[in-house]
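Ticket #4471: structure export looks truncated?
Reporter: QA, pipeline team
Priority: medium

Steps to reproduce: submit the single chain below to the structure queue and open the exported record.
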Amino acid sequence: MQEENQAAKPNTDKYSLTAVLLHWLLAMGLAGLFAAGLFMADLPVSPLRLKLFNWHKWAGICVLTLSVLRLLWRITHQPPPLPDEIQKHMPAWQQFAHITTQYLMYSLFFIVPLVGWAYSSAAGYPVVVFGVLPLPDFVTANKALAELIKPWHEISAFALAGLVGLHVAAALKHQFVDKHALLQRMLPARRS
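Actual output as written to the record:
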C-alpha cells in the first residue's frame, strides 16, 4: 500500500521536461559558441572566418533567446529543492557557492551575448540571424567604443566558461564522489 502511494505521488525531486530541455539546449549552445569563439579568434581574415563570425553572432542571439525562455520558466516554475541528503551534509560555504554560481551564470547568460551584440554593432557589423533576419544595432557604430567593448565579451565568456566548469565539477562530485545520484534530476524521466 505504501509503495502505491509513493508511485501515485509526482516525482518532485526531478526537473520538468521543459527545464531539462532548456538546460541541455543552452549547455550545448554555450559549448558550441565557446569552442567556435576560441577557434575563430586567431584565424586570418578569410571566408571561413567571416562565416564563423556570422554563425557565432546569430547563435549568440539564439542563446540569448533560450536564456530569456529559461529565466521565464525558472521564475514561473519552482525548481525542485536539493535532496535532503545533500542539504544535510553540504557545508554553508558550499550552499553559498551553489547559489552564487547559479546567479552569476544566469547573469552571464545575458551579459555575454549582449556585450557581443554591442561590440558587433559598435564595430559596424550588423547581426543577421540565420543570414536573413537583420537585428537593430544595439549601440551606434563607433570604432573607439568597439575597442572598449571587445575585451569584455572575451572576459565575460571566459568567466561564464569557468562558472560552467565549476557547475559541472560540483555535479560530478555529488554524483560520483558523494553518490547522491544528482545527475538523474536533470535527465529526462524514463517511462516504465
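Status: closed, not a bug. The export was complete when the record was re-opened. Leaving a note from the reviewer for reference: Residues 7 and 172 are 28 Å apart (CA to CA).
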